[in-house]
Write a structure and sequence with these properties.
Layout: E1 4-6, H1 14-25, E2 33-35, H2 40-48, E3 54-59, H3 61-73, E4 77-82, E5 86-90, H4 96-108, E6 118-123
Parallel strand pairs: 1-2, 3-4, 5-6
């Protein structure tokens, strides 16, 4: 079967650690989800390792371009979502106070995770009248 190697940002790996703990609590067998903390040296090993066949990256343009080139050079399928935009979709029946609080928190309360910060809001139907 397939396994998953998760290399979080070395600057803020907390969410990845919690995700792995939850997966283990849910019964995911050992060795299926593998957390590999580290910096550029670890990313290079992932890009270069012959048993790793594909890489998916979300983050900054400089790092993503580097990972895309290095992984591709080793024959890997590489998906790189660079400088991603995160959208919030507001439906017409949204509660205005909840919507405002949630959007402000998602846009400004990202604890240093810029790639996770809300950067676009899409209003559906009459929701722009809220």
């Amino acid at each position: 079967g397939n396994t998953f190697v998760l290399k979080p940002s070395e600057k803020d790996p907390g969410a990845a650690v919690m995700l792995c703990e939850l997966a283990k609590e849910a019964g995911l067998p050992d060795g299926v989800l593998n957390l590999v903390p580290g910096a550029e040296d670890v990313a290079n090993r992932i890009c270069d390792h012959p048993d790793i066949k594909a890489i998916s990256f979300v983050g900054g343009e400089k790092a993503g371009t580097y990972i895309y080139r290095r992984g591709s050079m080793h024959g890997k399928r590489v998906q790189a979502n660079l400088a991603a935009k995160n959208h919030s979709v507001i439906m017409p029946d949204a509660d205005p106070e909840t919507m405002i609080n949630t959007c402000v928190g998602a846009g400004l309360g990202a604890a240093g995770q810029r790639c996770m910060a809300l950067s676009a809001i899409v209003f559906v139907g009459d929701s722009d009248q809220l």
